[in-house]
C-alpha cells in the first residue's frame, strides 16, 4: 500500500491520508474497520455498581459526620481543660499565701486518718461477766479468757486479739 504525499511542495514528510494511491494493487487488502462493539452490559451489574456506589457514599458521609462530632468533642474537652488550668493557677496563687496553715492542717488530717485506721479494727463486746478479784493482772487474764471464749464461739476463724481492755470503772 502506498500513500500519496501531500502536495504542499515543500517536501514535508506528512502524508495525505484521505487519498489512497490507486496505482497499487494492494487495494483488495485494505479493509475499513468499524468501531468496536462492546458486548451489552448486564443491567443487573450496572444496578449493583450503582447501589454499591450509593452505599459507599453514605458510609463516607457517616464517617465524615462522626469525625466532625469527634472533633467538636475534642475542642470542647480542650476548652474545659484550659478552664481547669486557669482555675488551678488561680488556686495556686491563693494557696501560696496560706501554705503554712495548710501544712499544719495536713498533719492534723494525717494523724486523724491514722487514728481512724487503728480504730476500725477495734471490737466492742458487751455483757462479758466481770471478774471479782483484787489483783488487776488476774482480772485482765480473766477478761482475756472470757473474750477468747466469745470470739471462738462466734467467729472460729478470727485471730486472737492483740489487746483486751475493759471499758468503764472497776466496781468491787
UniProtKB/TrEMBL annotation:
Query: What protein name is recorded for this chain?
Result: (apollo) hypothetical protein
